[in-house]
Amino acid sequence: MTILRSGAKAGHALVEKSGNQSIARISTQTLTWETVVDDEYSMWSSGANTRLSVPSWVTLVQVGVSAEWAYNATGYRSTYSTKNGAAPHGRGSDQINHAGGCETTRSFWSAPLVVVGGTDYFEVRVYQNTAAALNMQISGGTWHSIIILGTT
Predict the structure, then answer these.
(1) Hey, which residues does 16 pair with through a beta bridge?
(2) Is the sign of the CA dihedral 101, 130, 20, 108 positive or negative?
(3) What are the backbone angles phi and psi of residue 138, rounded to the nearest 5°?
(4) Helix, strand or coil, per DSSP, at residue 139
(5) So what's the architecture of 2-151 in CATH?
């Protein structure tokens, strides 16, 4: 594996939501992504719009997620990344307990860095337990990214 050095070009992908996504009460759901902000190596596909898939020559990545929930004063929300449908070692996650109510953006970067290969893909899953469905917002605060840090 080669770790990218100063001056080397790292690839990346960044996708966002183009519409609110309703997250059912007491339900874990995978977020969909409709807007490509940047995608140098076609890691996103409209045919699998929940995923960012890693090119076969990539060996190390950093995954980023930001989730912005609609205003609600009760319950908690959880956001986490999965690798190939399962939580990767050292996954980033965020759990928010809302007692006072506010519109909140919670972000994380996965740590440690994630070793990848072949057909690996990443998705974002969310959970919430308010009294009803709650939207993920499209204000630019909900996004998913992959930065390539190592190659073969």
Answers:
(1) 35, 143
(2) positive
(3) -110, 15
(4) coil
(5) Sandwich (2.60)
Residues 50, 123 contacting (CB under 8 angstroms): yes
- In whole angstroms, what is the distance from residue 21 CA to residue 32 CA? 8
How far apart (Å, rounded) are the C-alpha atoms in residues 145 and 99?
30
* Each residue's pLDDT tens digit, 19-50: 899 999 998 999 999 999 999 999 999 999 99
3-class secondary structure, 47 = helix
**CA of residue 16 relative to chain centroid, distance:** 9
| Contact yes or no for 144/122 (Cβ under 8 A) | yes
**Per-residue tokens: 42:** 């076609």
CA–CA gap between residue 124 and residue 113 (Å, rounded): 16
Domain locations along the chain: 2-151
Whole-model pTM: value is 0.85
Neighbours of 101 (CB within 10 A): 10
CA dist., res. 1 & res. 101, Å (int): 46
* Residues shown for the chain: 152
